[in-house]
Amino acid sequence: MIAFESLLFPRDPSREPPNLCLSMSAILPLVSIFLVQVLMAASDSVEDTFLKCLTLHSDPSIPISAVTYFPNSPSYPSILEAYIRNLRFSSPTTPKPSFIVAPTHVSHIQASIICCQSFNLELRIRSGGHDYDGLSYVSEAPFVVLDMFMLRSVVVNLEDVTVTVDSGSTVGELYHGIARRTKVHAFPAGVCPSVGVGGHFSGGGYGNLMRRFGLSVDHVLDAVVVDAQGKVLDRESMGEDLFWAIRGGGGASFGVIVSWKVKLVPVPQVVTVFRVLKTLEEGATDIVHHWQHVADNIHDGLFIRVVVSPVKRKGQKTIRAKLNALFLGSAQELLDVMAERFPQLGLVAEQCIEMSWIDSVLFWYNYPVGTSVDVLLQRHASPEKFLKRKSDYVQQPISKPALEGIWKKMMELEKPVLTFNPYGGKMGEISDVETPFPHRAGNIFKIQYSVSWKEDGEDVANRYLDLIRKMYDYMTPYVSKSPRSSYLNYRDVDIGVNRPGNATYAEASVWGEKYFKRNFDRLVEVKTRVDPNNFFRYEQSIPSLVASGPRIIGSSTLVSPRYVPTETESLLNLCYRRDLPRAMHFLDAMERRGVCADAIAYSELIKCCLAYGAVREGKRVHHHIFSNGYHPKTFLTNTLINMYVKFNLLEEAQVLFDKMPERNVVSWTTMISAYSNARVNDRAMRLLVFMLRDGVMPNMFTFSSVLRSCERLSDLKQLHSWIVKVGLESDVFVRSALIDVYSKLGELLEALNVFREMVTGDSVVWNSIIAAFAQHSDGDEALRLYKRMRRAGFPADQSTLTSVLRACNSLSLLELGRQAHVHVLKFDQDLILNNALLDMYCKCGSLEDAKFIFDRMAKKDVISWSTMINGLAQNGFSMEAINLFESMKVQGSKPNHITILGVLFACSHAGLVNEGWNYFRSMKNLYGVDPEREHYGCMLDLLGRAGMLDDMVKLIHEMNCEPDIVTWRTLLDACRARQNVDLATYAAKEILKLDPQDPGAYVLLSNIYAVSKRWNDVAKVRRAMKTRGIRKEPGCSWIEVNKQIHAFILGDKSHPQIDEINRQLNQFVYRLTGAGYVPDTNFVLQDLEGEQREDSLRYHSEKLAIVFGIMSSPKEKTIRIWKNLKICGDCHIFAKLIAKLEQRHIVIRDPIRYHHFRDGVCSCADIYWRIKFAAVSLLFGVNMSVGLKQASAQHFILFSMCPDLSSFYSSNSMMPEAKPDYFRYFGEGKGVEGEVAG
Predict the structure, then answer these.
(1) What's the mean pLDDT in 1221-1238?
(2) SS3 sequence, 13-30?
């Protein structure tokens, strides 16, 4: 605790009460006003009256009159001009203060506060911060300047390694005082020595030590503050909330900072600096681009600032990048770090200068090496100029093309300069709520925009202001979003200001959330408690909720509740601790006493109810707030509406919304978003119309919500046009929503056009367009866009990788998916990413990897279970899928329609008719899932595989939806298996009614006729196809080898190794024939004879792909093949036999499922082929279900390679768990960069 008693009046019992601060506070509302009225009545001048007030309330032994300056005082102009750093606010038309008080004693501050309130004057506090927009000495209302420059004591205490420094001191004076006492300590503050510590510290305070030690406020131990009642407080008496607020929240909103007590930090006796200049011609773009990737993660003792400015060289415009650095260590250590992490700069020993820390301060402010440290005591280190500053934060590296665009814009504008200050190190370790300064982890660097000029005049100023604003606007795509953050100490009125008088929360939040993010609400709470009447106010001061709206008045004996600050603080503390039961008890006690808290306390209590999912308690809070006729402010009602929305109580939210006397854009947007998320799209659209009729203009959040309610393209087009008219089409979230909705309506080209209209890029928009193509199974385009995104300098996040994994699904590119998995490991494993990984491995046919992921998931939801069940079913492990479904029920997870679909699929592909019927008939009663078209499709497939055609027809008539093409095609396929030509003809006609151009119906009907040897009918069908221009899709198989896709089509000779492949295939067929293999010509659907029939089977595309895979990959590697058509029965037999013969694991994916061939067994267990085209029974007349006993001796070799179903399940109940081979990538950190060639 700071010993501030020496600053107070002398303790003379005969002259003053024992507790001066309390006494002064007590007499303020009575004596001060009375005396002022008496003084005013005496017909003195205003100046005399004000001076008498000051004298009355200050220590007479230190006359305040000596440090009070009126406009007619000779020293007034020089005092006022002395600390105006921006000549824009030094013109004759700039509003001037009524008085200036330059306190030399704390009582001068107290008196100024009391008298300004008595005279209804605003008080501006000037303590030497940057104050680029003049807020500390300019006001449109009558005001007084409290100029702190006379309070400049610096006391260094090396026993506890602290410094007590008055707020009027400059950073240079602080550094000078430290250097006089120690060579191995420093303080992390600004690099500009003329900046005052009062404002600098209270806004955060950063400098070139921040990557090792953090900000100035991170080392503040105590402070002395004078509050709005004139009380002098230290940390203990002010409380931790106020102490928190003044350390980064802007002290001038809460009181007057008198002094700080700070902790020094250790520095080595020798540090190293360098300054390197590079132009575009010397590789500046590459250097800055590389700097972004190392600046925040390089050695934390190294701070490299980059100053980028447009210059002229030999009459040509170019860009110069100046890199200034401070390293806490020797030159050799620095060179080692740079050689390892930033070799692109090419730093050499001659550019490095070793010196003491205090000398590095001078070097950084461009003093020549060897300058005396006494220069730090100069308060005006540089001449004043006209200027404007702005700030931004960059959270993703800017791509090289984008940097080039920025350089081009800078050269076009000529004047703006950009300064990049790196973050990382200690800044990433401190929580963003530790102090009000929120810009911690996640920021790569901060940008300061600068423009300065010497010419006077309003037109000139406007021209330069326009230049920097254009530069700021141009940078929008590259900087932080929602909010676009700014640095408090670089005050910028462009981002928003309070209205004159008492600003509302909504007004102040416009700029407040940019400076403070989520800390803004807590600052408002503190302000409301410590300065409820909002005495300390200016254009960007924290608002008081009491002053900015109707106050709650009355006493405990009246009906209206009374506002009690202590009740608010107690309730808030309970809410912050998330102690809901005690908070609700406290609320009940408040009701009984007839008191209430403020709006912030209630909003925190509502958040607490949301955190607990406590609906009943939330309703009680609602009732309490509206009790006794009290009508809360709009923002609190909005919080209640949001609570009901989060609880999915839309009716209650609507009732509350309808009763609101005043609705703002947040109110409307909350309701529109609620209905949009609930898929009540027509209601969301109507609310938008009502919103406009109410005179409220939608913002970007409104549009991004209502866009997702568009069900018709015409509505979407109208909204899109409107968005363009109001100028919101460039907003990230609006553009992202447009892309999402266009893609959901199937308008991928329009979505791509919206994306292409983006000037440069944004990760959110990139993610949207990649997801659009991935969701529409256009994996090629999704991956192409992903590569473009990476080349543009945007890193992948969880959302990106989820889409990339989905793209890998559609292309079945397992190796690419594994590389994406490597990137996933860089993030915290959340449920969505784990589910995406699980889905990718299942759909790429790697059940070992899928099971590995699933078994290690810490949390599983219904999507996890459903994905694994469907994956097992589609890969042929039907019994395992059903067993997993039973385990899911035991775990208490409720199945959804996707889960049931997977179970029915498993039953279908395992031939489990009775089980399938049981699951289908009970899905509504047991799980509340209504059968949908897909569920009927699985049951029809199950019945068709079992040959139950009559039951299929009956089920089609019982469907609760109209049969579609898939339904009739399932029946047609079953007819082919059973050679029911008449029913097949009927099904084909139904298909052609729905789509006369459907090639599948013609092909299936032709195949049925071919199997029945009705070649004339086959010819008729094929003539009809030719006449109508319908072409059969040729069978194609493809395989990925060494990141190259190799495609094979029957009869195609284009593959460079086709001759070698055919020779190898013939050798395999010869060896298999010796083992008893005979090609099954029943699968020849052409009118051929003898060897022609066998040859037409031999060169099927899947056989060619299998042979190429064996030739091109090591034996331990799984051969993975994709086929666009269902694998034929003969190829199925061939794959089983060759897998046994070559001891290979072969996976073939056709449009229906995966087939895993291993040791002469397929995971599908030959269920489909056993119906009609089971290869062994066709060849040898042996029923596989009977087993091996009936097989003749001559076929034993073949049967030994193809065990029956029961044998398969007894020996292969689950594929053995193996360590996935993608772990070899972990150490290498490979990216998803492999080219996919066709």
Answers:
(1) 29
(2) CCCCCCCHHHHHHHHHHH
pLDDT digits (tens, 9 = 90+) for 657-697: 999 988 888 899 999 999 999 989 999 999 999 998 888 88
Sign of CA dihedral 568, 571, 574, 580: negative
Pairing of strands 1146-1149, 265-266: unpaired
Tokens representing 926? 């047991």
CA gyration radius, the chain = 39
Residue 45's pLDDT is what?
66
pLDDT tens string 294-333: 999 999 999 999 999 999 988 899 999 999 999 999 999 9
In angstroms, rounded to a whole number, what is the distance separating the alpha carbons of residues 1163 and 329? 64
**How many angstroms separate the CA atoms of 374 and 693, rounded?**
67
The per-residue pLDDT of the chain, averaged, comes to: 83
- Say how far apart CA 676 and CA 702 lie, in whole Å: 11
What per-residue string of b and e applies to 73-97 under the rule 16 or more CB within 10 Å gives b?
Answer: eeebeebbeebbbbbbbbeeeeebb
Compute the distance between CA of residue 438 and CA of residue 519 in angstroms, rounded to an integer: 7
SS3 track for 35-74: HHHHHHHCCCCHHHHHHHHHHHCCCCCCCHHHHEECCCCC
CA distance 626 to 640: 11
User: Cα-flanking dihedrals φ and ψ of residue 746, to 5°?
Assistant: 80, 10
End-to-end CA distance of the chain: 74
Q: Residue 488 — φ and ψ, nearest 5°?
A: -55, -45
CA 1182, 1185, 1191, 1194 torsion-angle sign:
positive
Selection from 960, 968, 908, 958 nearest residue 929 by Cα: 960
Beta strands in 346-394 (DSSP E): 353-355, 386-394
**Who has greater pLDDT, 127 or 1219?**
127
Give the pTM.
Answer: 0.51
Could you report the per-residue pLDDT of 520-562, keeping only the tens digit for each?
989 999 999 999 999 999 999 999 987 764 333 222 222 334 4
The alpha carbon of residue 1134 and the mean position of all alpha carbons in its chain are separated, in whole angstroms, by: 50
Q: Which residues pair with 317 in a beta bridge?
A: 312
At 548 the pLDDT is: 61
* Residue entry with tokens 């266009």: 742
Q: Mutual orientation of helices 599-612 and 565-576 as an angle, nearest 10°?
A: 20
Tokens coding 151? 């309070």
Whether residue 355 is predicted with pLDDT greater than 90 in this model: the reply is yes
Edge-to-edge, what's the strand order for the sheet holding 162-166? 154-157, 162-166, 256-263, 220-226, 232-233
Contact indicator for 698, 690 with CB cutoff of 8 Å? no
For residue 683, give every residue at least 6 positions away whose Cβ sits within 8 Å of its Cβ, in sequence order, or none.
Answer: 675
In angstroms, how far is CA 786 from the centroid of its own chain?
Answer: 17
Task: Indicate the pLDDT class of residue 1124, thresholds 50, 70 and 90.
Answer: confident
928 backbone φψ class: left, alpha, beta (φ>0; ψ -120 to 50): left
Instruction: List, as one string, the DSSP characters of 1093-1157.
Output: HHHHHHT-HHHHHHHHHHHHS-TTSPEEEEESSPPPHHHHHHHHHHHHHHT--EEEE-SS-EEEE
Closest C-alpha among 158, 181, 177 to residue 166: 177
| Closest among 1203, 1165, 1175, 1169 to 1187, alpha carbons compared | 1203
- Rounded Cα–Cα distance for residues 223 and 588 (Å): 37
Which residues are registered as beta bridge partners of 985?
Answer: none
Q: What residue type is 736 in one-letter code?
A: S
Q: What is the pLDDT of residues 190-222, one digit of tens each?
A: 999 989 999 999 999 999 999 999 999 999 999
How far CA 1130 is from CA of 1011, 1015, 1127, 1135, 1161, in Å, comes to 14, 21, 8, 9, 14
What gap in Å lies between CA 302 and CA 272, rounded to an integer?
9
DSSP string covering 554-601, please?
--TTSSS-EE-HHHHHHHHHHHHTT-HHHHHHHHHHHHHHTEE--HHH
